[in-house]
Amino acid sequence: MADKYDVIIIGAGPGGYVAAIKAAQLGLKVACVENWTSEDGKKQVLGGTCLNVGCIPSKALLEISHKYEEAQHGFADQGIEFKDASINVGKMMSRKETIVNQLTGGIAQLFKGNGVTPIHGRGRVLANHQVEVTDNDGNTTTYEADNVVIATGSNPVEIPPTPMTEGYITDSEGALEFDEVPKRLGVIGAGVIGLELGSVWARLGSEVTILEAQDTFLPMVDQQVAKDTLKQFQKQGLNIKLNSRVTGSSVKRKLVTVNYEDNDGEQELKVDKLIVAVGRRPNTDNLLAADSGVNLDERGFIFVDDTCQTDAPGVWAIGDVVRGPMLAHKASEEGIMVVERIAGHKPQVNYDCIPNVIYTHPEVAWVGKSEEQLKAEGEQFKVGVFPFAANGRAMAANSASGMVKIIADEKTDRILGMHVIGPQASEIIAQGVIAMEFGSSAEDLALTCFAHPTLSESVHEAALAVDGGAIHAVNKRKKK
């Protein structure tokens, strides 16, 4: 038997590595198991999907592609004139890799600085808080701990009609590695990942078609915001086809033919590359020994309670392998909650205040409940909306599309949700998260002084608009 630890964490993604660092800060003896290996096979790579092939590299490409599109189409209106800009895909990818390497290397330094023991290999949960780790050579070592935290994340879902085909049909990870801009690009799935990846390559010159099986665009988003979002994306040239169910595909003569059905019957789409972005599934295959005491549901998620405790005492699970949204920041918060509970504290994650973001341009972000959810629950509410078109800072930045929307309880005025489409929505939404975390009313925000000129003034105006008091927009007349 190898060394015993207070906590062993399986997985070094945003849930696992944050939990490991926090556990060490709390004085616990902690080890973190991670199987990800560098391309040369020589060293362990930390950060999980998010840092290596997810959140961070995709944001790097989104940022670069947005700058390129702005240079192509937005600078002239602002008086900046130059000859045609061009995109160097190789250099763009190199820039992305540099950012990824800096961040993953930074985690290794944080582990070292905090006294976290990294263990390279694939972890498997055994009975009695034991973890079996298999290294790249197939050797196994068994470790023991008082507590085990499962943070193994998720991977892209594959669908039978479109099997992965190297060079032609890829998942979200492969879409971050294209060596040239495809002339025609197909994307299956108009969710967060599909829209972000479609946006990247559309900005760089691809003719992008997105096929979505559902008949509602972004059903998880407040529909006033979702409809505005769809209009913005269509204006940008994204061809989004709803109610389109993919039935098959083939690769011939360096082209991918996608067969799908819509309201008009059987259809066909020909593209140079196809991205499958239909969701993610939890990484729980071969993770649990039969006598581990940890149970899965029919979709492969680990059963946990509100504090992320599994059915096996002393074994916890966080992030994408458990219920709730598959978000890096949700995983991190759960990781911190779990290790603090292990250390004897009693924190709780407020799942009602977890922000969601789509990092397109304009960005889309939301927290709390939508109008549709509140109507379905029979709740009485009031709404305040303010457009960025009336915001001076947004106009000065040549980014004045979209809105801020605040929903408050009709009787108590407590903020129930905030929804944003527009410039820096990912940053602005934090104001709604903080307000809701403190139980703020719309009046609390309305009585708060915001700097001028800022994008955040739109939050102030939306809060004022909840009770018909917006200053820089005409308020809706209240029904008598």
Automatic annotation (TrEMBL):
Active site: H452
Compartments (UniProt record): Cytoplasm
Annotated Gene Ontology cellular component terms: cytoplasm
Keywords assigned by UniProt, alphabetized: Cytoplasm, Disulfide bond, FAD, Flavoprotein, NAD, Nucleotide-binding, Oxidoreductase, Redox-active center
Residues annotated for NAD(+) binding in this entry: G189, A190, G191, V192, I193, G194, L195, E196, E212, G279
Gene Ontology molecular-function annotations: dihydrolipoyl dehydrogenase (NADH) activity; flavin adenine dinucleotide binding
EC class of the enzyme, as a word: oxidoreductase
Domain FAD/NAD(P)-binding: 5-335
Principal subcellular localisation of the protein: cytoplasm
Gene Ontology terms describing biological process: 2-oxoglutarate metabolic process
EC number annotated for this UniProt entry: 1.8.1.4
Domain Pyridine nucleotide-disulphide oxidoreductase dimerisation as annotated: residue spans: 354-463
Matching NCBIfam families: lipoamide_DH (TIGR01350)
Subunit note: Homodimer.
PANTHER family, per database record: DIHYDROLIPOYL DEHYDROGENASE, DISULFIDE OXIDOREDUCTASE
Protein name: Dihydrolipoyl dehydrogenase
Organism of derivation: Tamilnaduibacter salinus
Record gene name: lpdA
